[in-house]
Specification:
Radius of gyration of chain B: 21 Å
Low-confidence stretches of chain A: 230-235, 238-243, 300-309
Oligomer: heterodimer
Distance between the termini of chain B: 31 Å
Mean pLDDT of chain A: 82
Number of strands of chain A: 17
Order of helices and strands of chain B: EHEEEHEHHEHEHEHHHHEHEHEEHHHH
Strand order of the largest sheet of chain A: 6-5-1-7-8-9
Structural class of chain A: alpha/beta
Shape of chain A: globular
Largest sheet of chain A: 6 strands, parallel
Largest interface: A-B, 45 and 46 residues
Shape of chain B: globular
Low-confidence stretches of chain B: 445-453
Helix content of chain B: 40-55%
Number of helices of chain B: 16
Number of strands of chain B: 12
Strand order of the largest sheet of chain B: 5-4-1-6-7-8-9-12-10-11
Mean pLDDT of chain B: 84
Chain lengths: 484, 453
């Protein structure tokens, strides 16, 4: 019985990531699925459809041996302007998407969160819900919704937030995961702080788990890889298309992230990790569901001599700054929980040994010193014999929120660009969002600063000496004994 | 007089161990992967009907029920070479999984109890004289712990006279170990309460120790899960040899357990096995006399639990020795052990090491003349429970990770407190068992008796 995932791609960024994601997933399954049958692992992301006289009929998984007819992705595509969607349809993957699951408009949200949230959101509410209803019906046992969007723009942030709210109301027990692209410090959109903080408020309330990603971090990763590589071998960033557009490499990394999170659900392994287990183990308090992601290795190990050292090196790398998908130094902050998803041929004694090492290297909160969760999946990812994905609940995310809030405050104090927003929403929403973010930062800060209460021994009094005087003060000596 | 045993495999861990266990049993009885007796298996004096029954077409089918709340592991078994072995009606899997949440496993089981009980009762009806159930599961995850707990309660209710033995895999306990689930203290605590109250005997298996043994004793550089589970299956099959190859004594489970468990609550056993080999690899052990085997079994490094046997004392020991053994040697070995004080026993009871001799399977070649399994009831097992309590306290004080438990509407948060009480009392009882006045412990407050009714 397959466990399906529905991806929701919102906005330009979301759809571009989506395109790379589907490309990767197809290649992964193609490599795994040599007899081209529609087996259960494919059913997580795809539907098998027979197109008879223009009326597509869904072919169920059955015994996992039906041949592939036409694959359709379980995806809902939302964008308020047509450019990206048209590009998608024209590309090689165009056949994968079902036209009926597209929700589009012409003019776009103009980088305005309020326009997306309060105008387009309600306008398309019915169509959206209808679409979701149909996609959910096609699923046997839906596990979760995966939203891909950015927070700096208008559609991804505004409409995306609105959709999360709708999903929470309509399908409360289905997990809502999001991959949210946070704007980097020098972002191309001026009002991105407004959009981000307003979305953050919604993400805090409506999402079950957020994987924040930062464009700057992705750029750093690409630079790290390209320096030594110089054209050698297939790395994690390469897609199938020869003509690569500028953001393709970065989106590929995110595609790998999403594929690795779900690999345990699709392929077999000795220790499986589901999406609900991820939220269960890594989210101690409901508000703090922002997980830091990092991956290693970032390029394939072509040099087999390095194999033996490779695994340990992978675990060391995964904690370093260069491998994080967010501009955060996790080692300088505190961990509340750490999860590892390991793919490929890694013995679980190696994992145990390395986790032990990691335990001694990091600052783990005192009441959860054993807070590790790991999963093993047999199938390695494309081009690499083994890889690891680390999802951690780290207080370092507060630095990202703080810097966002700083930029927000700079603009808000001057009430700059505010009139675009007040066309659709109240000013009070800004206040609310800002307080909500400060609150979140405070929570993380508290966790970072909490110290283990030291054991205060209970003492009993044995003896008080006679008070004596020395010059102008008098003092007495109290003798205390530890109570048994 | 056949005393049949039904095996219940629950959750990912339970099913993976179970798979190895049935593989081992088939090898020992000369049954092929699809249940047909091999041509060379003509001895006929082994009792296959304890664990297998014969279908109309001469197939041997294990008396096993395979349960999981998600489909992956069971699908893996159904796609393995042994898929034709099991009764296809005895698979049960749901779709969603328990997500490492005890509450989801427990109440999931409650919702599915009709179907589960129907399967179990069918198996029970198919046996002439059912002796009891053996449950395989882990206590740190969601299904094995939650659904396992629910089944323990239900089986106790429906089959009050039947024994329930469990092989429970405890999570990595030591500071130096790697835990694989963050919320394991919660799940372990809640399950420990049911293991204490509703099970008759718990064989404790510990991933840290198994791993250590695989690396140290077997010299496997990178043991994978399957090889480690083979260790477990060796132990399980060895502990059932006296049931399957009948001899003079110990032909049923209740006899084995009677001498091991002096008081009803102290029913958590440790195991040790020697010599350890996997697939006829030559291991480091050369000489295998009875004394040697028995001496090695008492060494901490052969014991599959990471609680040290140097502290505390043994309440009772059972050694099952297989192979070419001269009965007089046993007496000498016991004397030696007593002289050298290799094991410290409780002050309030007899220092008993029971030795059972059993036959080996004629179809499985081993490199050693003598091999032995030890099942021991040792008081220091409370160290494991203590650790669980400490970790639980730390997390609970901060109310961390409780959201998912609260999501199950029937789950009360007080359940944690009740479970904690039970486990604390268990720890106290083990500690008291080390002292000479254990006989009068617990007599002053009759409250204890009430709780375990």
């Amino acid at each position: 019985m397959p466990r399906e995932l529905i991806t929701v791609q919102v906005g330009q960024c979301g759809n571009q990531i989506g395109l790379r994601f589907w490309d990767l997933v197809l290649r992964e399954h193609a490599r795994h699925n040599k007899d081209s049958v529609f087996d259960e692992s494919m059913s997580s992301f795809f539907r098998n459809v027979e197109i008879k006289r223009g009326n597509p009929i869904n072919i169920p998984v059955g015994d996992g041996r039906n041949s592939l007819q036409n694959l359709k992705a379980r995806a809902v595509i939302v964008d308020m302007e047509e450019g990206v969607i048209n590009q998608m349809l024209k590309s090689e993957l165009g056949e994968l998407f079902d036209q009926k699951h597209f929700i589009k408009d012409v003019s776009g949200a103009g980088n305005n969160w309020a326009h997306g949230f309060n105008y387009y959101g309600p306008k398309y509410e019915e169509t959206l819900m209808e679409n979701f209803r149909k996609t959910v019906e096609d699923c046997d046992s839906l596990q979760g919704f995966f939203m891909m969007h950015s927070l700096g723009g208008g559609t991804g942030s505004g409409v995306g937030s609105y959709i999360l709210g709708l999903l929470k109301e309509a399908y409360p027990e289905v997990y809502r995961f999001t991959t949210s692209i946070f704007p980097s410090n020098d972002d191309d959109v001026i009002t991105s702080p407004y959009n981000s903080i307003l979305s953050l408020n919604e993400l805090r309330k409506q999402a079950d788990c957020v994987l924040p990603v930062d464009n700057q971090a992705l750029l750093n990763i690409i630079q790290t890889i390209q320096a030594p590589l110089a054209g050698k071998g297939a790395g994690i960033t390469e897609g199938k298309t020869k003509e690569e557009k500028p953001f393709d490499k970065m989106n590929n990394i995110i595609a790998h992230l999403l594929a690795n999170i779900t690999c345990s659900m699709r392929f077999e392994g000795p220790l499986n990790v589901d999406l609900n287990e991820i939220t269960m183990n890594l989210v101690p308090y409901p508000d703090q569901h922002f997980l830091l992601a990092s991956m290693a290795p970032l390029y394939s190990l072509l040099d087999l001599k390095l194999q033996a050292r490779g695994v340990d090196q992978m675990f060391k790398d995964i904690l370093t700054d260069q491998h994080q998908l967010l501009c955060v130094s996790p080692l300088r902050h505190r961990y509340t929980a750490l999860g590892l998803i390991i793919r490929g041929d890694v013995a679980f004694t190696d994992v145990a040994k390395n986790i032990k090492k990691i335990k001694s290297d990091i600052d783990m909160i005192y009441w959860n010193k054993e807070g590790f969760k790991y999963g093993l999946c047999n199938l390695p990812s494309l081009g690499q014999p083994y890889s690891a994905l680390c999802l951690s609940n780290n207080t370092g995310v507060r630095s990202v929120f703080s810097s966002l809030q700083g930029r927000f405050d700079k603009l808000y104090r001057r009430k700059a660009h505010l009139h675009h927003y007040t066309e659709y929403i109240e000013v009070s929403l800004f206040e609310e969002a800002s307080t909500s973010t400060s609150d979140l930062i405070a929570q993380y800060l508290e966790l970072e600063n909490v110290k283990e209460p030291s054991f205060i021994p209970r003492l009993s009094l044995i003896h008080i000496s006679e008070p004596t005087r020395l010059l102008s003060i008098s003092y007495a000596v109290f003798c205390l004994k530890k109570k048994k | 007089m056949p005393r049949e045993i039904i095996t219940l495999q629950i959750g990912q861990c339970g099913n993976q161990i179970g798979m190895e266990f049935w593989k081992q049993l088939c090898k020992e009885h000369g049954i092929s992967a699809d249940g047909i007796l091999e041509e060379f298996a003509t001895h006929g004096d082994d009792r296959k009907d304890v664990f297998f029954y014969q279908a109309d077409d001469e197939h041997y089918i294990p008396r096993a029920v395979l349960i999981d709340l998600e489909p992956r592991v069971i699908n893996m078994i159904q796609n393995s070479p042994y898929s034709a072995l099991y009764n296809p009606e005895n698979y049960f899997h749901a779709k969603d999984g328990a997500g490492n949440c005890w509450a989801a496993g427990y109440y999931g089981g409650e919702r599915l109890q009709e179907e589960l009980l129907e399967m179990i009762e069918r198996e029970a009806d198919g046996s002439e004289s059912l002796e009891g159930f053996v449950m395989l599961h882990s206590i740190a995850g969601g299904t094995g712990s939650g659904l396992g707990s629910f089944l323990l309660e239900v089986l106790n209710d429906r089959f009050p006279k039947k024994l329930i033995q469990t092989y429970s895999v405890f999570p990595n306990q030591l500071e130096s170990g790697a835990s694989d689930t963050v919320v394991q203290p919660y799940n372990s605590l809640l399950t420990l309460k049911r293991l204490t109250m509703f099970s008759d005997c718990v064989v404790v298996l510990d991933n840290t120790a198994l791993d250590r043994i695989a690396v140290d004793r077997l010299k496997l550089v990178n043991p994978n899960m399957s090889q480690i589970n083979t260790l477990v299956s060796t132990v399980m099959s060895a502990s059932t040899t006296t049931l399957r190859y009948p001899g003079y004594m110990n032909n049923d489970l209740v006899g084995l357990l009677a001498s091991l468990i002096p008081t009803p609550r102290c029913h958590f056993l440790m195991t040790g096995y020697t010599p350890l080999t996997i697939e006829r690899q030559v291991s480091a052990v050369r000489k295998t006399t009875v004394l040697d085997v028995m001496r090695r079994l008492l060494q901490t490094k052969n014991i599959m639990v990471s609680a040290s046997t140097k502290k505390g004392c043994y309440m009772s020991i059972l050694n099952i020795i297989q192979g070419e053994v001269d009965a007089t040697q046993i007496h000498k070995s016991l004397q030696r052990i007593r002289e050298r004080k290799l094991a410290r026993f409780i002050p309030w009871g007899p220092a008993s090491i029971q030795v059972a001799l059993s036959k080996k399977s004629p179809y499985v070649e081993t490199a050693h003349k003598v091999s032995g399994l030890m099942l021991a009831n040792h008081t220091n097992i409370y160290a494991l429970f203590d650790r669980v309590l400490k970790q639980y306290d730390k997390l609970k004080k901060r109310n961390a990770f409780l959201e998912n438990y609260k999501k199950e509407k029937d789950f009360e948060i007080e359940e944690f407190d009740y479970s904690k009480e039970v486990v604390e009392q268990l720890v106290d009882e083990y500690k008291a068992a080390e002292k000479a006045d254990y006989g009068s412990w617990g007599n002053d407050d009759g409250k204890d008796e009430e709780m375990y009714k």
